[in-house]
Write a structure and sequence with these properties.
The structure is a homodimer.
Chain A (H helix, E strand, L loop, with lengths): L8 H21 L6 H8 L3 H8 L2 H22 L10 H18 L1 H8 L10 H17 L5 H9 L4 H9 L4 H17 L6
Helix pairs in contact in A: 1-2, 4-5, 4-6, 4-7, 5-7, 5-10, 6-9, 7-8
Chain B binds a DNA duplex (30 and 30 nucleotides) through α1, α2 and α3.
DNA sequence: TCATAAGACGGACTGTAGTCCGCTAAAGAC
DNA sequence: GTCTTTAGCGGACTACAGTCCGTCTTATGA
């Protein structure tokens, strides 16, 4: 690995400008109605700058979500139970699903962008890996006879932004989704029927 | 509902030409490397024609998948068990997941296109609804205390093409995915641990 | 067979994502 | 302060998705 040279002053300035401009335009006009040209213009930089730094539309969305996701990551790694360490695995899984759904619901449009990369960006970015590792460990601890790695992907799959959005559009509310997901996760992890 | 006028001769001719051209180019160059201009040219029709008929890229992919999906649909509706009626619900669910994964694996690129619509095309198209209704009924029959509608979506989520593709790329093989999915579905539906 | 209307055709046009590369400015050495 | 290196800059450029609308084809029925 090479030395990670410090970020140059102009680079930092422009990075912040772009993020700020993107956030402003996204909330003003809605994520879908903002072109990267517009963001570049609003930020007062050239389009090339936006692309060099963020790669593509998805990369920009990821960067904007980063802060929010890091909050959740921190709570999981070192926060209080049930999200953080200390609670029983199943409880932690349920807490995570709940918290993630909240996050997702607040930023659906942005998540959709971040997952809509030409090719599965979602599964390459850091936070997905963290969520996956987290669930994988908890599953391993609860049902060691399962393929924890795969099962973690299965548990994350219903958190896809496009599904969430589609369900929203067909009238689902957050409460129902949370309840449904909790029920299936419980069932999956405890392997025991739960009376209603 | 209005009378569904018969398809005009030129329309039919062009529809077939486009589908044929698309299939040829997709297999020749790979789905990602074919533009709709190219398909129109290859089919000897104008670009407008392609779009009028199929709406967008996703629509074309859906049309190409249609035949294959209908095969599976037929087997489910009126074929022999365990896919068709007659087998116990849980068995039918497992059979469906297995068959769908086979289908998906054979046509990942096309499925990715069909699901990559700007906005969740996947959840609007007819076949998704059929799979969903099917699973929903089977779940209802097995675990009536669950929210069958939502749980069906959860079971379908891991069949997303982009996840399948990502797992493939990180070394998963079809057998492992099938086994994992069967295990989670069993666990979810029977609510009973299963020794390996 | 011809008139007519419903509908399809197709290519020019628009807007956007993403690339490229000659130019500029920052940072460190002296 | 000046020189040199190196990263960053930005806008012209390419290619593609998707729209629009004037023109042409088909089906119909008299």
């Amino acid at each position: 690995m090479g030395e990670p040279r410090p970020e140059r002053a102009d680079a930092r300035r422009n990075r912040l400008r772009v993020l700020e401009a993107a956030e402003r335009l996204f909330t003003e006009r809605g994520v879908k109605n903002v072109s990267l040209d517009a963001i570049a213009a609003e930020a007062g930089v050239g389009k090339g700058t936006v692309f060099r730094r963020f790669g593509d539309r998805a990369g920009l969305a990821v960067a904007l979500l980063d802060e929010r996701e890091q909050e959740l990551q921190a709570k999981i790694i070192s926060g209080p139970p049930p999200l953080g360490p200390g609670a029983p695995p199943v409880v932690r899984v349920l807490a995570f699903l709940d918290a993630y759904l909240d996050l997702l619901d607040r930023h659906v449009a942005l998540f959709m962008d971040s997952e809509n990369a030409s090719d599965g960006a979602r599964y390459r970015i850091g936070s997905y890996h963290l969520w996956h590792r987290h669930l994988s460990h908890l599953i391993e601890a609860t049902r060691p006879e399962l393929d924890a790695d795969y099962t973690a992907h299965v548990l994350l799959a219903p958190l896809a932004a496009d599904l969430h959005n589609a369900l929203r559009e067909q009238g689902y509310n957050l409460t129902r989704m949370k309840a449904g997901l909790q029920a299936t996760a419980t069932s999956l992890l405890s392997g025991v029927h739960k009376d209603r």
